[in-house]
Amino acid sequence: MISLKPITIDNLFEVIKLSKTLDLDQQKRVADNIVSIAQAYVHYDTAWPRAIYEGETLVGFVMLNLKDEDIPKEDQPAYFLWRFMIVKPYQNLGYGKKVIEILIQKSISEGQRYLYVSCEMEDKMPYAFYIKMGFIDTHEVFDGEEILKLKLDELKPHQI
């Protein structure tokens, strides 16, 4: 069973080491977890960093921005999926989908209208993954990444 747990002194260094499980191409496209954790510390009032576990096994890292002011006012309130990585041995096994479903449920339960994400377009992944999950391409680019969004209030329970 997938769960999202806070980053603590007990799992901090394990989460940091996860970045090295990615292949070199992925490492170039995904921020190192130590950078993400530092950003979470600096943005402690809006960052929501979590370790992803399958049972007791650490399989990834995810971080939301709970108050992204770059999201258009007409789409607020909205969360932004700031960081997301699954360790290489656990990729393509459905863990990413389960994490997105947990984030969608969290977002809906907390009254959000949209969940945003951005990704580079050098490779078909993760763009194809997000499209398959129901995100739509806004055709806007920020900092070299394509912006996608998922309208939460139109989701039916069977779609999550």
UniProtKB/TrEMBL annotation:
Protein name: GNAT family N-acetyltransferase
Native species: Paracholeplasma vituli
Recorded coiled-coil stretches: none
InterPro entries (UniProt xref): Acyl_CoA_acyltransferase (IPR016181), GNAT_dom (IPR000182)
Pfam families reported for this sequence: Acetyltransf_1
Domain (N-acetyltransferase): residue spans on this chain: 2-153
Organism domain of life: Bacteria
Source species taxonomy: Bacteria, Bacillati, Mycoplasmatota, Mollicutes, Acholeplasmatales
